[in-house]
Write a structure and sequence with these properties.
The structure holds 2 protein chains of 2 kinds.
Chain A (H helix, E strand, L loop, with lengths): L2 H20 L1 H22 L3 H34 L1 H6 L5 H29 L5 H28 L6 H9 L4 H16 L4 H30 L1
Helix pairs in contact in A: 1-5, 2-3, 2-5, 3-5, 3-6, 3-8, 5-6, 5-9, 6-7, 6-8, 6-9, 8-9
Chain B lengths: L1 E10 L2 E11 L4 E5 L6 H9 L6 E6 L2 E2 H4 L1 H4 L2 E4 L11 H11 L6 H10 L15 H9 L1 H4 L4 E5 L7 H16 L3 E5 L11 E4 L3
Parallel strand pairs in B: 3-8, 3-9, 6-7, 7-8
Antiparallel strand pairs in B: 1-2, 1-4, 4-5
Helix pairs in contact in B: 4-5
Classes of the chains: A mainly alpha, B alpha/beta.
């Protein structure tokens, strides 16, 4: 990456983070959703520590996944509507780099907060401390995958009516590997078999998504702009 | 030099224009005219490389723009119909973000100077959502005050501008052309440039 490309990408990253900061209600909506969903399950199921510990990893992971979905609809739509996306596509700097910067900003604004609150939510399910650490680690590796893969869906459905539902149908099946390895890592730790294998696979998902998703997103956005 | 030949644009099953040809030489401007829906914006989007033409080629210095990629985009400044401004950022932040995206970063003072030229100096530190429609358009056009791109492609730059704004636009356009720049402009209102612009009428 040349200096100009990096400067332009950092410019996009900074602008998107500044926007998230100026419009806190939008940025915090996914986190609140995650907190509410994860808190409703213990209330609905009742105080059965064994059962809660059993379902905890899965519920928390599904909650994080749905919270990410919630924030995808606006990822490119605002830039598409106000013409910023056109300007990004016309930039002499590589579009892929600018797109990657946008997804990074999305993760920092809506994925990272999920990781931060997850240990507190995990307490409600009576998970032991080392399991909570594994949960946080699995979310650190997993939420960027959710942002990257979700951005492909958001780009493909850009400008389509009823795009929100379409994103869910398109993206949720693609989230399955991240969900299986992420929740599996926490389960494995609970069962005492060690979470390394699952975390390694999740890391592999992240590496693959980091390398390939930005190209797919950029291609889908160019089609949407035509 | 920007040139196009045998250009055809199809939207859905409707042919907007076909067999279109034009050239824009250094120091010259081309004013694209036509009724609503005649394909002016489509033509501009094809000319900057955002959309492909159904047939024909747009060339820059003799080479198709598709094969030029970033080296062509470096020469072009495109102001579309939407202003590409973020409501929650201030006018200065918007101007700087747009300049950084175009690969020609501006300092805070330079951005403030550009906004002063378009007459929104007083609103430079306000979030764009609190500006009027015309002030937003001026903010979007502030890039023209400093930009060194050789080809300006402006879609309805006069929309929402008052008389003073129109005069300012005509003067920067004149300066741009006098310095050997090129311009491709659509407008429903007459542009008060000193240099005469060639006219291309679509749907005639």
């Amino acid at each position: 990456m040349t200096g100009g490309a990096a400067a332009a990408a950092i410019g996009v990253l900074r602008r998107d983070l500044l926007l998230a900061l100026r419009r806190k209600s939008d940025a915090l909506a996914p986190v609140f959703f995650f907190v509410v969903v994860a808190s409703l399950f213990p209330l609905g199921i009742g105080p059965e520590p064994e059962l809660l510990r059993r379902i905890g990893p899965g519920v928390l992971w599904v909650g994080a996944l749905l919270a990410t979905m919630l924030s995808l609809a606006r990822l490119f739509a605002a830039d598409y509507d106000d013409g910023t996306l056109e300007q990004m596509a016309l930039s002499p700097q590589p579009f892929v780099g600018l797109v990657a910067a946008k997804v990074t900003a999305h993760w920092l604004a809506s994925g990272l907060p999920l990781v931060v609150v997850s240990p507190v939510l995990a307490l409600q399910y009576g998970l032991p401390a080392d399991t909570i650490a594994v949960l946080a680690a699995s979310l650190v590796l997993g939420t960027p995958v959710l942002s990257l893969v979700g951005a492909i869906g958001a780009a493909l459905t850009l400008g389509v009516r009823g795009g929100g539902l379409l994103v869910a149908l398109l993206v949720l099946p693609l989230y399955v590997p991240a969900l299986v390895f992420g929740a599996g890592a926490v389960d494995a730790n609970l069962a005492g078999t060690g979470a390394e294998a699952h975390l390694s696979l999740l890391g592999a998902c992240l590496v693959l998504a980091t390398f390939f998703a930005p190209w797919a997103i950029a291609a889908a956005l160019r089609i949407a702009l035509e | 030099m920007l040139a196009a030949s045998e250009l055809e644009c199809v939207r859905g099953d409707r042919t907007l224009f076909a067999g279109l040809a034009f050239t824009v030489a250094p120091g010259a401007g081309l004013l694209v005219q036509g009724a609503n829906g005649a394909g002016k914006t489509s033509l501009l989007r094809i000319a900057v490389g955002l959309a492909p033409a159904a047939r024909g080629d747009v060339t820059w210095d003799g080479r198709p723009i598709r094969s030029l990629g970033p080296s062509y985009r470096r020469e072009v400044l495109y102001c579309g119909h939407p202003n590409a401004l973020k409501d929650d950022l201030t006018a200065i932040e918007n101007v700087r973000a747009a300049a950084a995206l175009a690969g020609r970063p501006l300092t805070r003072d330079a951005a403030r100077g550009a906004l002063a030229q378009v007459g929104v100096a007083a609103a430079a530190e306000l979030p764009v959502r609190s500006l009027s429609q015309g002030q937003k358009r001026r903010t979007a056009l502030a890039r023209l005050a400093l930009d060194r791109a050789r080809l300006w492609v402006l879609d309805e730059p006069l929309a929402a501008l008052d008389a003073g704004g129109g005069e300012w636009l005509a003067s920067v356009l004149d300066a741009h052309l006098a310095a050997g720049g090129m311009a491709l402009v659509t407008s429903h209102q007459p542009l008060a440039t000193r240099a005469a612009l060639a006219t291309l009428t679509l749907g005639a």
